Amino acid sequence: MPRYGFNFQWMFVWREGATPRPPDLRALDFLAKHGFDFVRMPMDYRFWTRDWRYTEPDRRVWESIDRCLEATRERGLHLSLNLHRAPGYCINANHLEKHNLWTDREAQDGFVFLWREFAERYKGVPNDLLSFDLVNEPPSEGQYGFTRAAHEALVRRTVAAIREVDPDREVAIDGIGGGHYAMPELADLGVVHSGRGYMPMALSHYRAHWWDGHKGLPEPKYPGLVWNGVRWNAEALRWFYQPWRWVEREGVRVHIGEFGCYNQTPNDAALRWFEDLLGLYREFRWGFALWTFTGEFGIAEHGRPGAAYEEIDGYRVDRRLFELLLGARVSG
After folding, report:
1. Domain extent at residue 179
2. CATH classification at residue 272
3. Residue 331 predicted with pLDDT over 90
4. What pLDDT digit, counting tens, does each position of 279-314 carry?
5. Which of 85, 220, 275, 324 could be disulfide-bonded to 203 (CB atoms 3.0-4.6 Å)?
6. Sorting pLDDT into bands at 50, 70 and 90, what band is 270?
């Protein structure tokens, strides 16, 4: 059965003096009650690393990860550990890194070290309860020194290090180009390929200040929004995911690790887009994780103009989006 759930930002961005947030037990209870089973936890390695000493982590911080795993385990939920900021790379504020994950041996060695350490720490935890998502949203060819060849070599080396410790650990790899594009060169590796559900960005990231492409965009209408030379509708979305379908035919399992819509997009356009997107995921039998549970991209209290909320288990939930998520799940 595909896995369905949400991203949670308990260890998302480190700032001076910051400590990991405890797992949100009330939100996890909501997931378990309503049949969701997947929790993706994007992490920032700086919570446990100082001065780029990648192989000298403060392992006491990892006790926070242990507590998250215990909380999800108690509720029968799967926890996906993801390095949102990895040694030498982050899709957000990459300039803060001293090294480069794609070109510098120091960062690559630190990256492999971390995942091998996690493999040792969580060896024996069943795959039903835990997986490793190696690095969030690698860039496009030519950005930050990234090449497909360097990425492939690093992924293969890291997966080999994990499997040397824990041969059966489930591993996921995000698509390149910010997670959007499939990687047929890694179809033989026996890992989950994690895609994204943000296209067209002119709709999902309308007025998103951290994305340079937001500037000067008109208010999005859907279907029919024209962006990057494409008129976006259900068929355009199907066309966009075709390369993932081709990789899937090689025996790869596809999961959508992130998708969602920023709260500046009018709710009627957002819901029509969600309906088309989730309809495809149901047809393809792909699992998914909304970014996020609460907040500007969430299902609860997101603040999107025109949304209708309903009180459900103590949350103000976008009822129509909730129904779309529930309806997109398949079983068996």
Report:
1. 4-327
2. 3.20.20.80
3. no
4. 999 999 999 999 999 999 999 989 998 899 999 999
5. 220
6. very high
Count of domains in the chain? 1
Residue 332, domain member (yes or no): no
Q: Does residue 204 fall inside a structural domain? A: yes
Which structure tokens are listed for 304?
Answer: 């999107």
CB proximity list for 284: less than 8 A, separation 6 or greater? 241, 245, 248, 254
What is the model's pTM?
0.96
